[in-house]
Design a protein that fits this description.
Length: 121
């Protein structure tokens, strides 16, 4: 029994397969970034690449030391806010990539399902 199929859709299989693999890898990387940042937040750590530094030298007395400690504390709060926002960016990207991934997988499944007679002949 001859199967009706669209040769153009069969030609899309390699493209879709490659795209699904690339999207899955990107989604995984974004998910890893999110998890890393969540771990940092849970442990009250600021990754070195996001750590803000500012040294103010106004002397070597106790007042200068306390002033620098207050600056360091403020910079840490800002750093935490920055990487909290960075985490949100990676989360949004992972969701978008997941949606694209699902669309491409569905299209690939549909093509394969619609052309099973061809693939087994």
């Amino acid at each position: 029994m001859a199967s009706t199929h669209d040769p153009r859709s069969i030609n899309r299989i390699p493209y879709l397969k490659s795209t699904v693999e690339k999207l899955a890898e990107k989604q995984m990387k974004n998910g890893l970034h999110v998890r890393f940042l969540e771990n940092c937040l849970e442990n009250d750590l600021v990754p070195s690449g996001l750590r803000l530094k500012l040294k103010i030298h106004i002397g070597n007395d106790e007042t200068s030391k306390k002033f620098q400690e207050s600056i360091d504390s403020l910079l840490k709060k800002i750093s935490l806010e920055i990487y909290d926002r960075l985490k949100e960016v990676h989360q949004r990207r992972a969701i978008k990539l997941g949606n694209k991934l699902e669309e491409h997988r569905d299209e690939l499944k549909s093509i394969i399902k619609g052309n099973t007679g061809i693939l087994h002949e």
